[in-house]
Design goal:
By secondary structure, the protein is mainly α. It contains 17 helices and 3 strands.
């Protein structure tokens, strides 16, 4: 656990500060706010090792504003707005309480834009690498409707959910990734160093080798002779794939394929639809027109295939079709969700029912992520078993036969 220094105010407005230990800044902020503290700043305490001259030199390049920074910013702005602090004073307070250079520069630019008469949403739009289209659109709606405090609270919850899902997925995939990397390294070592040594042993006996052994030796010779070309082709192919995926057709095809993967596909689909439902409910509750909300939400789902379906829903709504009919035509929602959307249209509580849809998908995503590692482990065991079987049939079995033959000749 890390230690975090924090400053804030109690419910009476009195200044407070201290230190708290937690797994992350997000966990520390959650714990403090649960005690009634209005958090103004929170920074990780630097240990003696981190404060060494080498650490100071390596830290000269300021890191960019992260999603965690954006979460803390949204929470702080919500707390300050709730306390009645004007936006300019709020930004000045955040600027004075942060030590991150990139965040300080961002706050300075936001303040300068506001002092020039620009709206906060307009100022944020200039920093698209920090504030995405959904964030900017929500801020604009909050400014127009006078509900900026509520918007900051909803944005903080939205970002918190996104970070939570990413962290759980990364945790579930950590062990399988390490195993796959170990398998790749083991295969490279076997092909480049182990099999050539055995090939020399087999050549001395001039014995007839099994087909599996001949195949392994041929693959090994090819790897030893052409490994620079293989490495160059691998790196070139990786960069070419990345460049193709950066194009709209490539991104669309890949995002559609992700939804059909055997194990990860359903998780990706449920997580994406949960993000859509919650984002749409937040936008709709804040007063964004449905057609505009669809366009904004399509930018936040982080999946080109689902975004295309959402845009098709928007086009249908603009033609006068109902939301439930457009959702049915999209072909990505479950029957239960379609029924809830239809009921929401009939009762006029589409926002509340979409929140329930988001909660349902989030719970299902949570259960699926928890079981992800358990479902992948049998596949990893099968791969490792196949690798051991190939080595046994191709290398160790011929060695055993040669040893038996040598003993037979010696005994005779």
């Amino acid at each position: 656990m890390a230690a975090f220094a924090w400053t804030g105010r109690n419910p009476r407005g009195e200044a407070l500060n201290g230190e708290v230990e937690a797994e992350s800044a997000h966990a520390a902020a959650t714990r403090l706010e649960a005690t009634g503290v209005t958090l103004l700043s929170i920074t990780e305490r630097i240990s003696a090792a981190q404060a060494s001259p080498w650490a100071r030199w390596s830290g000269l390049g300021s890191s960019p504003v992260s999603s965690q920074d954006l979460l803390i910013f949204s929470r702080q702005m919500y707390a300050l707005q709730r306390a009645g602090v004007p936006i300019l004073r709020a930004l000045a307070s955040l600027q004075a309480s942060t030590a991150k250079d990139s965040l300080i520069k961002l706050l300075i630019d936001l303040r300068a834009s506001l002092e020039q008469g620009h709206e906060l949403a307009t100022a944020m739009k200039r920093h698209s690498n920090v504030f995405n289209g959904f964030y900017v659109a929500m801020i604009r709606v909050g400014e127009m409707s006078g509900r900026l405090t509520e918007v900051f609270e909803r944005l903080a919850r939205h970002i918190e959910f996104e970070l939570d899902v990413r962290a759980r997925i990364a945790q579930a995939l950590r062990y399988p990734t390490m195993v796959m990397v170990a398998i790749v390294i083991a295969m490279a070592v076997i092909n480049l160093f182990v099999i050539p040594t055995f090939a020399q042993v087999f050549a001395q006996f001039k014995a007839e080798l099994p087909p599996m052994t001949k195949l392994l030796m041929a693959v090994s010779r090819f790897s030893v002779d052409t490994w620079p070309l293989i490495l160059a082709a691998g790196v070139g192919g990786w960069w070419a794939l990345r460049a193709w995926l950066a194009t709209p057709p490539g991104r669309l095809l890949w995002d559609g394929m992700k939804l059909k993967l055997p194990i990860a596909g359903p998780i990706v689909l449920k997580g994406t639809l949960a993000r859509f439902a919650r984002s749409f409910a937040i936008a709709s509750r804040s007063g964004v027109p449905i057609s505009r909300a669809m366009t904004v939400v399509a930018e936040t789902v982080d999946n080109a295939y689902i975004a295309q379906r959402i845009e098709q829903m928007r086009e249908g709504i603009e033609r006068g079709e109902s939301l439930s009919r457009c959702a049915t035509a999209a072909g990505v929602f479950t029957p239960v969700v379609l029924q809830m959307i239809a009921i929401g249209e009939e009762t006029g509580d589409i926002d509340g029912l979409l929140i329930e849809v988001a909660d349902m998908y989030e719970r299902e995503t949570d259960y699926a992520i928890k079981g992800l590692a358990a479902r992948i482990e049998p596949l990893l065991l099968a791969v490792i078993g196949a690798l051991v079987l190939v080595l046994a049939l191709g290398i160790f079995l011929p060695l055993w036969n040669l040893g038996q033959a040598a003993q037979g000749r010696g005994g005779g």
